[in-house]
Sequence to fold (269 residues):
Amino acid sequence: MKKIFALLMALTLSLGFVGCGDDTVTDETNAPETQAVETEATETDAPETAAPETAAPETEAVEEAKTVMTHAEYIAAEMDTEVTVEAYVQATQSWWDNTINVYAADADGAYYLYNLACSEEDAAKLIPGAKIKVTGFKGQFEGEVEILDGTFEFVEGAEAYIAEALDVTALLGTEELINHQNEFVSFKGITVDAVEFKNGEPGDDVYLTVSKDGATYSFCLEVYLTGPDTEVYQTVSALTPGTVCDMEGFLYWYQGVNPHITSVTVVEG
Fold:
């Protein structure tokens, strides 16, 4: 009986305790706002490796192609200006110290190439008829117009050209003669007045004083063109005053007409 009563009392007390309890308002314990620290990622910019500008190399031609002049353009060119011509070798003087003097021509006229840069090997290839392209400076010495201090190259595959001698006998003493300067020419019926060796004896240049129709002219046998061992040198060395000859040579100029003679045929005397 006591046990039942005790149980009822315990139950009654338990219910009363619940009824007297405070209304508990649970504070919202706001969890601290863990503000996300905006970790601004340090932009570790990879160093901009600028790709080297591989601009196509400017291929500048080492030397621009030279415009080849006609003979008329060459004649019209000012003195001391650069000129470029193509011409055919007609004869050469002796090679020396990597230079050579060349008598050259084309179908329209002729050229004298003075001190042309040339190796000994190439000098052997400068045979009559060979075509070359020459660049140098137009100059003048004592009336002789020439291409000075030039360089040249061979024009491969070109047909050989040898100029025939132009008879200029009738032009002696006229202003027209100089229009054929440096051409391969001939003179008919020339009378020898005197023969003089440059150093007083055979072995060097031979100076000829000749006349035609009462007028006197100076011709020359250039030893570097036709040396002492050539037939023409020996023929000229034996000439005597009064001998009449036909002559051929290049119409060189030195203080007036002064042909470099390459052939002499005795006609009379």
About this structure: The chain has four helices and eleven strands. The first strand starts at residue 82 and ends at 92.
